[in-house]
Write a structure and sequence with these properties.
heterotrimer; B: about 675 residues; mainly alpha; two-stranded antiparallel ribbon; 4 strands; about 0% strand; globular; disordered C terminus; C: alpha+beta; five-stranded mixed β-sheet; disordered N terminus
Amino acid sequence: MALAHDAPIAHHDEHESTGISNTKLGMWIFLSSEFLFFGALITNYLLYGNGDFAGTVPREVYDIPFTSVSSFVLLMSSLTMVLAHHALSVNDQAGTKTWLLATALLGAVFLGGQVFEFTEFIVEKDMTLTTNPASSAFFMLTGFHGAHVAIGVLMLLSLFNIARRQGGLSEHSGMNLELVGLYWHFVDIIWIVIFTLVYLLSAV
Amino acid sequence: MTATSARPTTSIYVRPHPKTGIWSWITTVDHKRIGILYGYSAFVFFIFGGIEALLLRIQLSAPNNEFLTAAEYNALFTTHGLTMVFLFVMPVTAGFMNYLLPLMIGARDVAFPRMNALSYWIWLAGAIFTYSVIFFADVTPPIGVEGFAGSLDPSDQTFLGGLPDGGWFLYQPNAGPYFSPGTAIDFGALGLQILGIASLISAVNFLTTIFNMRAKGMRLLRMPVFVWMTMVVAFLLLFSLPIIAVALFMVTFDRSFGATFFQAVSGGDPILWQHLFWLFGHPEVYILILPSMGIVSEVLPVFSKKPLFGYAAVVFAGAGIAFLGFGVWAHHMFASGITPVAQAAFGLSTMTIAIPTGIKIFNWVFTMWGGRIRFTTPMLFAIGFVSMFVIGGLSGVTHSIVPSDWQQTDTYYIVAHFHYVLFGGAIFGIFAGLYYWFPKLTGRVMSEKLGKLHFWVQFIGFNLTFAPMHWLGLQGMVRRTWKYAPENNFGPWNLAVSVGAFIIAFSILIFMFNWMYSKRKGRPSGLDPWDARTIEWSIPNPTPEYNFAIPPVIHSLDEFWHMKYTEDEEGRAVRRPDADDVIARLEHDGNNPKSPIHLPNPSYFPFIMAVGLPLIAFGIIYHLSAAGKALIVVGATITIGALLGWGMEPLEEPHEAHHDDHADHAGAEDEDASHHEEVD
Amino acid sequence: MMPAMVNPLGRARRSPRLWSAPRRLAGIAVLALTTASCSYFEIDSPLTTFEPAGPFAEQIDALFWPVFWIATVIFAIVNILLLFVIVVFRDRPAAKEPKQTHGNTFLEVTWTVIPTLILAGIAVPTVQTVFDLTECGSGAMDVEVIGHQWWFEYNYPDLGITTANVLVMPEDQEVCARMTSDDVLHNFWLPALNGKRYLVPGQETLLRLQADEPGEYWGHCAEFCGLSHSLMRARAHVLTAADWDSWISEQLAPAEVPAEGTAAFAGWEIYQAKCTGCHGVSYLDADGATAYAGPADDAFNGPDLTHFASRNVFAGAAFPSGDQSYEQALTEWLANPPKVKPGSFMPNLALTQSEITSLIAWLETLK
């Protein structure tokens, strides 16, 4: 994350009035904006998702057991993220690397599930981005979420790579790990909301 | 003396070092230089928007006029709106914020200096991208949902007509794929998306700065009102931009990728666009006006020689306006057929906005009450703001009377209303700020003679332009109309309005001349030309690169004032006998820091990263062609490459005094992370 | 006695210096100029919102004026206060340094509470009027209003009449406009009869219309709806009961085919060859039966022409405009529609002058 490197500018005489570092505070502020971004996308789906349209609508084609499994995978990645953070806090560099990689892999598995789901909807169920407003809203929402997960996976892999090359994460990269962690938990929480509101509550 | 800057020793990245010339501007991360860049570029677009307005006014100066084609007229009112909102008022206020925010809270820079530069370059990229449409788009008649297209006379296919023509509000489905089939609207929608990214970055940056970078003792309720308004605006941006981002993505999906979110023919709801747009668009109005309210709240106390009356009330009224601003969006849609319950609710919520606005106005008037008012140019503009804004505010209340609004909406009455708010309000405030803080940029004061001439010409021109529009609107003149019938007798007043518009244009020329002239020949300002109250005036003019040689410690609101003045037993201001010595000492100390001050280093990456975004946007518009796909890849490569470079670039170069051994990891790390407090 | 009658206003007592000859001349000149400019600047627009001609517009008008006067009084108070302050408290050499007052809770409460009370006062009738004007009355006559780029279509479902551009309605009769759009958003507005209401594709909106007096009322599409938004206008013709009945029977009658050999007949033939793709006409065929020439209902439809000449305006009620004669305007329109109305769905059919003359001759028979 670009945010991470901008922190320490005026180190002679300035202080953080809130006691939270600039980068972390900046990330929180950014995520509060992201909440509204997904809020708007989810609202859009809730408005269109249950409408009657020509063609296949998402609620007819959900595979709840499948999506439950991939949601569980993403949920577990939050756990491994916490473990990575904990490992770093006790200076267990090997553990940090392992859990970082595990988080990235779980994220990748989730993405793989989404690719599979999209393919099935488009090829088998004949529901594409352009079928009707409900399908558009579905693909737009889950697509943007998937993009966020993908960015998260890239950030996790970068951290893992830095840790591997340098034999561990420094204090500063530790701050980066915290930031990526914040972001990752955010992406997970959003998925829980999406899974509940978009999948579970509107499946036929 | 200036800040030190050692040569790079360990980094594999060559840091840019120029102090002058174009590269120094492209690579700068100095908040003051970025503020100046914002200001000048915004002013260029102000001139664009102004010329567009003049062309519109020539067209409207007589009934059934043929000066412009319909396509040109529609394109010009659209770009006039887009330009004035997104390319003038927002960036020029961003310029003020950039320049002043760290100075007012006693900081050396913003929290994220490189992101600050990034925000500017993305904004500029978005602006240039939006205007580049003129080379790519044609005038296109609607193709219609039945596939039966409208037709166009060849004489309507003009250069200017190719600008986006859906209105700045891009109402769907008119601005959708069936009724605006060309690429013009795509440029508008994606341009706004890019500009939104810039604003979002600024918002995160300013909020972090305000929360974290305040000088010792600068408690929240000791911050100048302008800083408060910056914070409120940043929150508004933070919460309204994601909504318009989603809405614009929906438009782009509809237009470029075959979705039908707003296309009724496939079950989409065109009114949803309006909800989303105004859920952003109404807070946007406060994004435009609140910075000027902040400026006026700085200027009025200084020239009244009194503290701001009801400081806390003014601050909380500003926050209240912003908060309520999220609950009034549907008053733009009273005629859209929303339910009567919704109309009543939004009518009432709109009325409540009048209360905090009234609080502000009365507090400003009572700031002047009992003062010693000096009619300097900034003060004239501030007083002009108060009196003109009252008119805009009151006509706003008439819109909350829902049935009245059914008559007034979409007429020139509305045009008059929001120009009283945005021109009589926001732009008068901006000019007050430009005259007031000019010495901070240049060390000189702008000519008062020319300034006062500018004010009066602009004040008269402004009222001649916009006051008759109330009358025209109530007489039934519909907005966004290229022609009006002679039977309506709108001609004479419209001619008067057009004359007024040219008078405004003339006043802007006076301002530009004054600016250029005063920059070179203006009276030297010294440290405290206005007998000011806030700490940005406690450092020399022009502002040194490092801002504060000695970090300020704040003991009260209006810290600088209290260095110069005390009060007698009656509560009257008494100048301290040593005030002049204090100023002389500040001037001397401010120019001569005791130890070298290290500043964040310039960087190429913000600029490079911004270059990638418009390329991606071009690619999305032409994504069906191979060139389009290639552009997406090239743009993404540039942006992501710059992001990686940014990440790997050391924030600061090694320098002797602060070299920490432990952090020297392969140049990838910040070598001076030690000051980070470990949190939690 | 006598002097008082000569000079009832007592002007003679005024100081001659204040009312000297040059000043008097100047005064007269200013007065004359003001009067002249007033009449020059006077707007007497047929679109004005100040002359409500029916109960709904009157109800809005009655709500507008009190609010207007309240706003004017507040404006005056604030600006007089402002002027007072800047005159009285301007910096003078002898002025004392100001007291450093920071605020006053009583004043803050005052200017919070008083506006709140005023607003609460105007909120009540506002909400009342919103609900009053939402639902159509029980005796209302339904008229479907359909917006097209760039003209309004009016269907009278109970009468079986379809017309365009001119909304015809009887006096003292509520019309319930049930509105929708065929393409983009439009906004139907007859200022003398009611406020505006959108026409939304895929949705129905309602607008109550009623006029007290027969006459012609002007209207306009108020929402930006594309290239020729400014030329999407409307008229309402309000008729007496007797005129209304004859209008209905006139509209229900099919058109008669003109006699062969006339210019109008030539026009009829051109219409059949070039115009029926978009425009329909119901006519009496040779057997005396009602026949229809024109597009299918679900295809693209321009205005129905059966009673074209019964309407005094055409092409979105925007023509004729100014000092154009009807024939002049129609000639220009037929010669090149997109030139007259940019983006027009009626293309340039490259008609010759003689074809245009024939078409006009025929169109004028369509009463």
